[in-house]
Amino acid sequence: MLVGCSLLSGCLGTIEGDPDSAAAIEESGAPTGSDFDRAMMEIASSYESFSQINSRPYRSSLGESQINLYVLGEVDAYRSIHPEVVAASDKIKVGTVIVREVLDAQGAVAKLTLMAKGPKGYDPAIGDWWFGEASPQGVPLVAGDTVRLGRLTDCHGCHVPRAAEDYLFGVPEAEQDD
């Protein structure tokens, strides 16, 4: 599967079947923020074709919301991370994309939250993760005058305590799809 090449001139390489893709990304350097934002939104727009990790909606570790979670890329590595366990995990490879459907009280998608593993140096303070928030239709959300894409430092507060798990919460093991 070719990922992000139309917007990043090949710097994301391939996700599956190419063990050298992460190295190629790291060698190419970080793209401009706007190019990377567009590429991640383009990739995430097909999130329903990603691997769904949970078997049914579950309560988010970050609040009261129920969520569904989808991953493109490092599915097995992601499945090994659980919010109820604090243990060192392998780092997720560059190019992995995570999309969470945040559900409203009726079970409809209220918004999407996104993460993607960026190239080395993208945002070292948070393991080079890119963040985003979008409407259910995939339109980036805006808070004040800030588009909710990219190096969202307000996301760091929740994720920094999970540094040993590559800044991820995962899905509770009991809620994972088999």
Structure summary:
This protein has 178 residues and is α+β, with helices and mostly antiparallel strands. It contains 5 helices and 9 strands; from the N terminus they run H-H-H-E-E-E-H-E-E-E-E-E-E-H.
How does this model look, in words?
There is one protein chain. The protein has 178 residues and is α+β, with helices and mostly antiparallel strands. It has one domain. 19% of the residues lie in helices and 22% in strands. It has helices at residues 5-8, 21-28, 33-44, 75-79, 156-159; strands at residues 51-52, 58-59, 66-72, 97-103, 109-117, 129-134, 142-143, 146-147, 149-150. Strands 1, 2, 3, 4, 5, 6 and 9 form a seven-stranded antiparallel sheet that branches. A two-stranded antiparallel sheet has the order 7-8. A hairpin with a 5-residue loop joins strand 4 and strand 5. It is globular, with a radius of gyration of 15 Å.
Main beta sheet: 7 strands, antiparallel
Helical percentage = 10-25%
Specify Rg, calculated over alpha carbons: 15 Å
Beta-strand percent range = 15-25%
Q: What is the helix/strand order?
A: HHHEEEHEEEEEEH
* Overall pLDDT: 79
* Overall tally of domains: 1
Shape: globular
Total count of helical runs of at least 4 residues: 5
Would you report the number of β strands? 9
Low-confidence stretches: 1-33
Query: Which structural class best describes the helix and strand composition?
Result: alpha+beta
Distance between the amino and carboxyl termini? 23 Å
